[in-house]
Design goal:
The chain is mainly α. The chain has a single domain, classed as ABC transporter involved in vitamin B12 uptake, BtuC. Helices cover 78% and strands 1% of the residues. α2 runs antiparallel to α9. The longest helix has 28 residues. It is globular and about 55 Å long. The two termini are 17 Å apart.
């Protein structure tokens, strides 16, 4: 049994290394269109994975998490306009998002369910209005950034491809350590029964705050990279609630509370969306919505749950056939 588990572990590591190698080599053999699509996929995968830290593990659905995406984008753009280097700008923006969460988290995280979701949406809309009416943010006109100076457009695409890929890898790694550590166990206890978790001594406000702050950090970091990639941002574009709804759907489709579920959800939704859009220009949203509904009906807990259930059933049938059950 132990040898079988060790073999499975080795196979998982080999598979991960193969996937990383494939994704590392892929952009050198794809057209600019596909490289750009993969950058979008990586971006949404980061947003889904970071939101999963709170939503998937603790059961708190932050519909307004897009506020950190917008904040990261604007802070990076403003700092770069003041002469701050790009990498310093995105890190400062992400750090401010982290601290902002600590500042507002205590009263908002006291709410539960749809009250918490609505409160986060309120924060996002309030920030959107503030940004729209400030001179430093360009008001309703938005902000433009100096484009990345590289020899060709393809080099620019490769830069953002590998940068998004690196941030995604770090986000997945952090989520993995959360899932295996004290924070992950505490968040799962909160999701199962928050009052019960309190009764056994778990500091629920602290753990929820840390999970949301980490989520905000990576979301803000991604917003900063997005701003530099697009070279122009405005408040309706980066504080769009549709972005938040999209990566929440990705979490649900892939499997909330798992490490790789949000990644699968992001790849599936973005690829299907692009395929449907290219074939059915007028009715693409209707068809995409129907596909998502069907996936959720037949796989209510996401792809990861379906995979685990399927292989559990296969193993059970094999044991029955061999007379072990």
């Amino acid at each position: 049994m132990r040898e079988k588990m060790e073999r499975k572990k080795i196979l998982k590591i080999v598979l991960m290394l193969l996937i990383l190698t494939l994704l590392g080599l892929l952009p050198f053999h794809l057209s600019g269109y596909w490289v750009r699509l993969f950058i979008h996929i990586f971006m949404y995968a980061i947003l889904a994975e970071s939101t999963n830290m709170l939503m998937g593990f603790a059961g708190y659905v932050p519909f307004g998490n897009v506020v950190f995406f917008g904040m990261g984008a604007y802070i990076t753009a403003i700092l770069m306009g003041k002469g701050i280097p790009f990498f310093a700008g995105i890190l400062i923006g992400a750090a401010i998002c982290f601290l902002f969460t600590l500042a507002i988290g205590h009263p908002i995280l006291k709410m539960k369910g749809h009250y918490f979701a609505i409160a986060t949406m309120g924060v996002s809309e309030a920030m959107k209005q503030i940004v729209t009416n400030l001179d430093i943010t360009g008001g309703g006109s938005g902000l433009s950034l100096v484009p990345l100076s590289l020899p060709s457009v393809r080099d620019v695409y490769l830069f953002f491809y590998f940068l998004m890929f690196l941030i995604l890898a770090i986000t997945v790694l952090v989520t993995y350590f959360i899932s295996k550590g004290r924070l992950g166990y505490a968040l799962r206890a909160i999701k199962a029964n928050e009052e019960g978790a309190k009764s056994i001594g778990i500091n629920t406000p602290f753990f929820k705050m840390i999970a949301w702050a980490l989520s905000a950090f990576f979301t803000g970091l991604t917003g900063g990279v997005f701003a530099y990639w697009m070279t122009y941002i405005d408040s309706p574009g980066v504080f769009d609630i549709v972005i938040a709804v999209k990566f929440i759907i990705m979490i649900l489709v892939g499997g909330a509370g798992t490490v790789f579920g949000p990644l699968l959800g992001a790849f599936f939704i973005e690829f299907i969306s692009e395929l449907v859009w290219s074939k059915f220009l007028i009715f693409h949203l209707t068809i995409l919505g129907s596909i998502i509904v069907l996936v959720i009906i037949f796989m209510p807990k996401g792809f990861i749950w379906f995979y685990q259930k399927r292989f559990t059933l296969v193993a059970l049938l094999e044991n029955v056939r061999e007379g072990k059950v």
